């Protein structure tokens, strides 16, 4: 069967093509005075900072993917990397400014909640280089990367719609913001495409850092008959998994669909049906490495989806998802990539 799921390597290639298309000099990059800078490919003279959103660096999801990218970059290039955690939105601007004041070569804001803070910091510090995931900041010193989450969510919706035994499926989102509603809308559309009779319950927790709240919401959904829950809620989703694990131990047939990373690696195949992986790690790696290689370009915005292999299911899906269902996933992926199906996201 076609290897749809090994998308991370392919994403790096795709990002190389897409980001380089924004325009770059042979040695690319500029210094604070706007002049070209030479680079020998070593990161030893570079400092790259990352500010998390409220989910924290160990959210087992979005922020963790970004930090793992920078840890690997440090190991491979010698770049100095550091993170700061935001306990609330009020921490975001001060944390970004902390890295800027310390002269960091590049400062990342991880998540849509950074849009306003990063725009302000970028405007007030035109010589600083910044990058953001899941938000678009129109500034010449910012690189923005967003994803078509609805497309990958559609595919896990196909899985859920074909595999539910109760015809009752749940979705737990974090805050009700565009990036999360894209997950929900794509997921529901995928379910309805293969199982119009299925009931889909969508609940927003209002937080990305409340595992207890996620556990409570999941308990309510499972008690109401849901047998599969897809979460897009950062650390809150850890509670969804915890609830499922407890129920599995008592003999209940329930599943969770993970998000951003292959969450079966953290929570186990016993409860993880599949995951909607998002290429956060590859995106952070590529943009950061471009800086080191002298190819970084501010003022660019990339939207990455199925056509870029930037979203999709992990190879471990074969453990719990039957081959005939995975073939259906392939069919729908091809239709989305070709444009035959346009997945709702707004």
Question: How would you describe this structure to a colleague?
Answer:
With 346 residues, this protein is an alpha/beta fold. Helix content is 41%, strand content 18%. The chain is built from 11 helices and 12 strands. It has helices at residues 7-20, 62-77, 92-101, 115-124, 149-163, 178-194, 211-223, 236-249, 264-267, 280-292, 323-338, and strands at 47-51, 80-84, 106-110, 130-133, 142-147, 168-173, 199-204, 228-232, 255-260, 272-278, 300-304, 311-312. It has a 6-stranded parallel beta sheet with strand order 2-1-3-4-5-11, sandwiched between helices. Strands 7-6-8-9-10-12 form a 6-stranded mixed beta sheet, with helices on both faces. The two termini are 33 Å apart.
SSE topology:
Layout (H helix, E strand, L loop, with lengths): L6 H14 L26 E5 L10 H16 L2 E5 L7 H10 L4 E5 L4 H10 L5 E4 L8 E6 L1 H15 L4 E6 L4 H17 L4 E6 L6 H13 L4 E5 L3 H14 L5 E6 L3 H4 L4 E7 L1 H13 L7 E5 L6 E2 L10 H16 L8
Parallel strand pairs: 1-2, 1-3, 3-4, 4-5, 5-11, 6-7, 6-8, 8-9, 9-10
Antiparallel strand pairs: 10-12
């Amino acid at each position: 069967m076609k290897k749809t799921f090994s998308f991370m390597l392919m994403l790096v290639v795709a990002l190389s093509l897409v980001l380089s298309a924004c325009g770059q000099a042979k040695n690319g990059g500029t210094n604070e005075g706007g002049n070209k800078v030479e680079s020998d490919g070593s990161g030893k003279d570079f400092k790259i900072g990352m500010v998390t959103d409220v989910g924290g660096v160990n959210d087992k999801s979005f922020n963790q993917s970004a930090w793992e990218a920078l840890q690997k970059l440090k190991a491979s290039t010698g770049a100095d990397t550091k993170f700061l955690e935001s306990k609330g939105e009020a921490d975001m601007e001060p944390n970004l400014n902390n890295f800027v004041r310390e002269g960091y070569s590049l400062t990342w804001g991880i998540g849509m909640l950074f849009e306003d803070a990063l725009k302000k910091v970028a405007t007030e510090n035109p010589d600083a280089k910044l990058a953001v995931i899941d938000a678009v900041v129109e500034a010449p010193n910012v690189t923005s990367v967003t994803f078509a989450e609805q497309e990958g969510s559609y595919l896990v919706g196909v899985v859920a719609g074909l595999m539910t035994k109760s015809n009752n499926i749940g979705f737990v989102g974090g805050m009700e913001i565009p990036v999360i509603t894209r997950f929900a809308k794509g997921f529901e559309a995928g379910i309805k495409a293969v199982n119009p009779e299925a009931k889909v319950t969508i609940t927003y927790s209002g937080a990305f850092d409340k595992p207890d709240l996620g556990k409570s919401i999941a308990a309510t959904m499972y008690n109401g008959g849901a047998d599969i829950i897809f979460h897009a809620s950062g650390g809150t989703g850890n509670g969804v998994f915890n609830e499922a694990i407890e129920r599995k131990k008592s003999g209940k047939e329930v599943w969770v669909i993970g998000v951003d990373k292959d969450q079966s690696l953290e929570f186990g195949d016993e409860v993880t049906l599949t995951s909607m992986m998002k290429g956060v790690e590859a995106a952070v790696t590529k943009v950061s490495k471009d800086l080191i290689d002298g190819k970084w370009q501010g003022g660019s915005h990339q939207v990455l989806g199925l056509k870029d292999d930037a979203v999709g299911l992990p190879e471990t899906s074969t453990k719990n998802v039957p081959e005939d269902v995975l073939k259906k996933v392939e069919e729908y992926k091809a239709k989305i990539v070709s444009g035959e199906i346009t997945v709702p996201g707004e």
